[in-house]
Amino acid sequence: MDNSEDEMEEDETEWHNSFVDSVPDPSLNKTSGPTPAHRVILHFDLDCFYAQVEMIRNPALREVPLGIQQKYIIVTCNYVARDLGVTKLMAVTAAKEKCPQLVLVKGEDLTHYREMSYKLTELLMSYCPLVERLGFDENFMDVTKMVDRRLAETPESDSLSFKGHVYNHCSADVKASDHPRLALGSHIAAELREAMHSKLGLTGCAGIATNKLLAKLVSGSFKPNQQTTLLPENVDDIMGCLSGVRKVPGVGHQTAKRLQALGLVSVKDLQLFPLSDLEKEFGGPSAQRLKNLALGVDESPVAPTGAPQSLSDEDSFKKISSTKEVLEKIQELLSSLAERMHKDGRQPQTFRLTIRRYSATNKWFSRESRQCPIPNHIGQKITSDSSDDAVVQLVSLAMKLFHKMVDSSAAFHLTLINVCFSNLQTRGAAVSGKGSITSFFTHSTSPKKTQIFSSQSQDASSQSGNTDHRFSPHSVITQLTPPQKTVTTESPCSSGASLYGFKRKQRPFVAAEDPRLQKESRSTTRSEPEITVTHRLPPNVDPEVFRLLPEEIQKELLSPAYTNSLPGLSTSSPAVDDVPYVRKNKSPQSFSHSQNIKDTKEAVEKIDSSDRPTSVDKRPEGTSAFQGEMVMEEGSLSFPRSADCEFPGNVDPKVFSELPPDVQEELMSGWKQQKPVLKTPSSRKPARSLMTKDRKAAGKGSQANNLLKYFKPS
DNA sequence: CAGGGTTCTT
DNA sequence: AAGAACC
């Protein structure tokens, strides 16, 4: 949270500080360059996000009380349902009691939500790159520059008014001229909300304030689909209205408890508590941060989120108590995770397995995990081929980690399993031998441009590839990559890129023939293959685990390709080539998340048939149906109102034309991101203690659009 | 907490 | 590797 000492990558441009409202200028600490005299931060929060996505996918759901179900809980519901008494996080049983007509849609598969979530982030980024995600349905945006630009362009500051509500002000009684920057921020927020609605069909709330904390707190003031601006003079009001410290973003359960132990329960208590005493319980920095939060002070910058740093998949359940079940669950999770990883294009260097055990006391929480590096030959398989066999090896890796945590000879009871890939490398790394110098390419991968319709342009065939070898351009390249050479190839959209290069997940039903399916029943009776074969097992395969594997996997493991390349120790080189491997994973239930609309809905069902989001409104040219890949070379498409024609809609062409050429240019580049935008973030601050933060900034900010700019540190 | 993710700090 | 936080 306290991103202190990080410069504000913007140091270059001076702040045309404007005026009026000044705030506690914390010129204190930090090397941070000029602290923005006054930032204008927006916070967007989508209305019942999952429910909205489902209603877009199936418009008929808009008129019925809809609940999104994950296991036994309604994680969110539409407003129709709320009017009938259903609330978020309500048990399904309770919800049905309250509202028998409630229609339920399973929401455990987050694919669609994730895709829509990234589309929104990308949309916002197309207006301004400083967008930070918070979960799937919230985004922070620093529109300070945009505001200052408009302010400069629009001398007629008069006739300025606020869009939406203004916290604690009955209405238009506020003089926008006293807070022109926030007023302009409210206009931008309104425009962006309109864009999200027209382009993506989403509605949501927005908060406009001078920092993230405040923007987030104020955004929920007027609930469904509205926006609120918080003026500096009302900071105390909004902070004071919070029912307790726990309501302050940044103060979680544990922190709240510790504060309570100090006798601090209300925000005011915390505000007035001596900092020195606070420092005794929490560290120095934490104490200061907590106090600042209570005061509504938050200097943390909007840090562009960029591509995710890890991908994980998990499932919870009532109980899993046998190794076999664990193995199957892990395999199921890994299959989908590997598929996602493959689409992402980056190569994970670390694998982690997390479990949650049941125990009367300490009922929940407490997860335990074990992680290990992913042998690079396995990692490569994930990104290149259809990763099917990578999964086999990963499962084996996972089981080893599992045994480090659980003594399977004793009884155990798990309620959750999570698999995670992290330490994602934008290709290039490979290292031949072991010790490699990974440190070398922290930057080296050259700029990837070429994004274009990156990977998966193949709709119908992609997955499982089995036959049909349509390699996407990148998958081919992917393999080589000499050690430490700065390759010039490009990588697929690397992550960031539209990080979401989604493609329809066409989940064919191949899984049906998965031998494992029929095998179930007899699994316990079987035994033929294993004994005779056991002694030939590859070095790192646990015979016990092996025995539990489906036959074909067993076979696979015995093939030359694996006998000496198993994870764990052997340095072995992946011998030979791969074995033809068929088997599509995708466990039975996992596909096509059949919408499971509970009873009641016949009418609803019919409409659903199309898996397609029955689209929303008109889809502006830019966002084609293929959104995954948008934004390419010529930014022309991909963006609002498109380039030539200009501006995000709200800019007066006339005014624009009268601007100095260089200003026009800057504006344009800001709108259509395409290029690394003007100032390359590269540290124009030569001296910066690069590394540390710079790296991060580079990596992150880069994703603004597809073409990420990667600068060599230094 | 519920459920499925993510990121950051210890 | 575990905790904490946030959605």
What labels would you give this structure?
714 residues; alpha+beta; 6-stranded mixed beta sheet; 4-stranded mixed beta sheet; 11% strand; globular; DNA-binding
- The low-confidence parts are 1-33, 429-540, 559-714
Number of helices: 26
Strand order of the largest sheet: 6-7-1-9-10-8
What is the residue-mean pLDDT, rounded to a whole number? 64
Distance between the termini: 26 Å
Report the principal-axis shape.
globular
Note the main sheet.
Answer: 6 strands, mixed
Q: Please give the number of β-strands.
A: 14
What is the CA-based Rg, rounded? 27 Å
Beta strand % = 5-15%
Structural class call reads: alpha+beta
What is the helical fraction, as a range of percent? 25-40%
Please explain how this structure is put together.
The protein is α+β, with helices and mostly antiparallel strands and 714 residues long. Helix content is 34%, strand content 11%. It has helices spanning 49-57, 79-83, 92-98, 111-125, 144-153, 180-200, 212-219, 235-241, 253-261, 267-272, 275-281, 284-295, 323-344, 376-383, 388-405, 441-444, 473-479, 515-522, 528-534, 543-548, 551-558, 560-563, 602-608, 653-657, 661-671, 692-702; strands spanning 41-46, 66-70, 73-77, 90-91, 103-106, 131-134, 138-142, 165-166, 204-209, 227-229, 310-320, 347-357, 368-373, 414-425. The protein has a six-stranded mixed beta sheet. A four-stranded mixed beta sheet has the order 4-3-2-5. Strands 11-14-12-13 form a four-stranded antiparallel beta sheet. Helix 5 packs across helix 6 and helix 13 crosses helix 15 (388-405). The longest helix has 22 residues, at 323-344. The protein is globular, with a radius of gyration of 27 Å. It binds a DNA duplex (10 and 7 nucleotides) through residues 1, 45, 49, 69-75, 89-91, 107-110, 113-114, 133-138, 249-255, 305, 308-316, 352, 354, 363-371, 416, 418.
